[in-house]
Fold Flagellar basal-body rod protein FlgF.
Amino acid sequence: MENSTYIALSRMDAQQRAMSVVAANMSNASTVGYKRENVLFSDFLSHQHGSKQAEGADTESYTQDRATYRDFQQGDMQSTGNPLDLALGGEGYFQVRTANGVRLTRAGRFEEQQDGAIVDENGNALLDRDGQPIELPQTDHRITISADGVISTETGEQGQIGIVTAQDNNTLQAEGSRLLRSDQPTTAVERPNIVQGMVEGSNVQMMTEVTQMMEIQRNFDFMAQFVDAEATRQKNAIDKIVQVSA
């Protein structure tokens, strides 16, 4: 198999990777707090050595999958009327305690358990500014949350939600579609902007994703046709060599 086929296959592999990322974005278009992903490709240059290289053939360019990164642009605010649905305007993340440790999230759909603990949809406890789970008196029912995260009920203030920011969003590791793991220390946001009764929707734009998917499919089909044509060319060349040798 000639190097031209290997180059085409490297680009087909990249297109498959891009397609899987677009498909994941589309499947999470309605996931609260989801941030769409992008892929980053680059050229891997292979320098050919030898005195008989054709002009322009001294370097071969393969496609290299470098990284997947997230678009942290804010999603649209969606009104729910639920007092424990919270959206963040601007920077920052909620903190929740999972079985694997503290995780960050923009998915602000919370609920109160029977013991008064505030948890997310997976039962992970929402944390306050001191990194402790927030619990409300079981007899209280009127919940108000200020923009800076202070939770109050009919018996007074019950705590303050901790909102933090990461040193570098690009270092955050996704765990599922809602949670992010930070391997570096986080910093408290001094003036968060929490909106009660709303959630932040996904920042996926379906029209953009569909257009991108069509472009990826066209590129993949083109490369597949090239590989097929190259295989036919090589087969025909071998058949002629065999005929001459016979």
Summary: The radius of gyration is 26 Å. The chain has a mean pLDDT of 88. The first strand starts at residue 37 and ends at 47. Helices lie at 3-27, 206-245.
